[in-house]
Amino acid sequence: MYKKLKLLMGSFIAFAFSGGHAIAEMGLNLPKPVSGGAQDIFDLHMLTTTIATTIMVIITLVIIYTIVTFRKDKNYEPDQEFHKSWFGRWAWLLVPILVLGIDLSIASSANSVLEKLWLAPTGDDVMDIKVTGHQWWWEYEYPKEGLKIESRLKKHDVSNKLYLRDVDNRLVLPVNTKIRFLQTSADVLHAFWVPAIMGKKDAIPGYVSETWAEITEEGVFRGQCAEICGGGHGYMPIVVEVVSKEKFAKWVESKKSVMMAKAAEALSDKTWTKDELMAKGEELYNLKCAGCHNIAGTGMMPVFPPLKGSKMVTSDLSAHIDIVLKGKKGTAMSAWSALLNDLEAAAIITYERNAWGNNTGDVIQPKDIKTYR
Asked: What is the arithmetic mean of pLDDT over 286-306?
């Protein structure tokens, strides 16, 4: 029996202290870090894991030794005076000192890492990215580049390996650039977290928090909202694509061209037909509104009311436009004025007033929205 226990314990120790590559292949570790801050977090994680594993192995060995050596079938008599021995007396002091020493060794390293992560650099060579969390999608703004991107979950079949992990628009960043992330929220608490790039930081309504990273490798890195933010919390993936500075400049120009084309379309004096507005409105509604109000307009009570058959949607046009643009305090309906241009707002409202059997016949033009702003 004793030989079997020794063999079992030897196998356990060999596994516990086996190479990190073998454990990483099992998918039990953090992803490979690609920034200095992420590397510091990874090193701190490995330090904590090593200390915890070492303590576990030592205690396990002591327990096994005790069970084998002082077992009943050896007729061992318990030492009733153990508390009067040297160890029995001094253990009350030595053990807390040992534990405190271990805690301080971890805390000291953790404090250094936090100071480095949260004290973001400033200067002309620093690129700012404003990250705004919404229920349940991400908005990325590039202030210096004059660009704004909306990123939402990309629908996939359950069998797809990227199910719930891919988005329609990625956050594209240049490599070897100091990037400051300014995080906030439009509604509830969210948390922007890409473990290969940076630590977790909450996005808080009415408050801007910051962290930073300098990404050293090109590639695609994935994360997710790490703060429970409601029913769609699991549908807020983050996908960061890191490219060369040359590719990033070309990407910015292409996105700005698309934005300018949309702005020109919205500012034109064209009178849109009902069919044109309905087609555009359906596409925009399914993209921006269906997550809360459902594709069929049936809502998700009690938080998100139905639009199908709604008195406001079928009768009070002014109230309908007002709530879309300005939102409603005390509810989950946030203001969309800054997120929709006049054409987009007109198309969505026209669609909502004529879809799902509402059939009001109302056709709202971009100039009507401009009047309400």
From this structure: 84
